[in-house]
Amino acid sequence: AQTIAPDSEGAIDGHLREAGLTFHLLKDVPGIVSKNIDKALVEAFQPLNISDYNSIFWIAHPGGPAILDQVEQKLALKPEKMKATRDVLSEY
């Protein structure tokens, strides 16, 4: 499933440079994620009859601690559900 969040144009801006890919995230990306994650997950998991997000394994692209905090809070995830993601974020 794929969801385009309203008012998200330019929220994440990437550029290919000699040093590699660089990204700039607007300050409100965590808020945009928080406001739209429910819709995105319902579209992805409803066909599989999954509505308890603590019943599945989680690995999220760690855009930063604020984004992970918003996902965890909005979905009422148990802290251990985001442990692997937070470990990757802290190491890289």
UniProtKB/TrEMBL annotation:
Positions in coiled-coil regions: none
GO molecular function annotation: naringenin-chalcone synthase activity
Family label: Belongs to the thiolase-like superfamily. Chalcone/stilbene synthases family.
Purpose of the protein: The primary product of this enzyme is 4,2',4',6'-tetrahydroxychalcone (also termed naringenin-chalcone or chalcone) which can under specific conditions spontaneously isomerize into naringenin.
Enzyme Commission numbers on file: 2.3.1.74
A Gene Ontology biological process term: flavonoid biosynthetic process
Database matches in InterPro entries: Chalcone/stilbene_synt_C, Polyketide_synthase_type-III, Thiolase-like
Protein name: chalcone synthase
Domain Chalcone/stilbene synthase C-terminal residues, every copy: 1-92
Biological pathway: Secondary metabolite biosynthesis; flavonoid biosynthesis
Record key words, sorted: Acyltransferase, Flavonoid biosynthesis, Transferase
Stored Pfam families: Chal_sti_synt_C
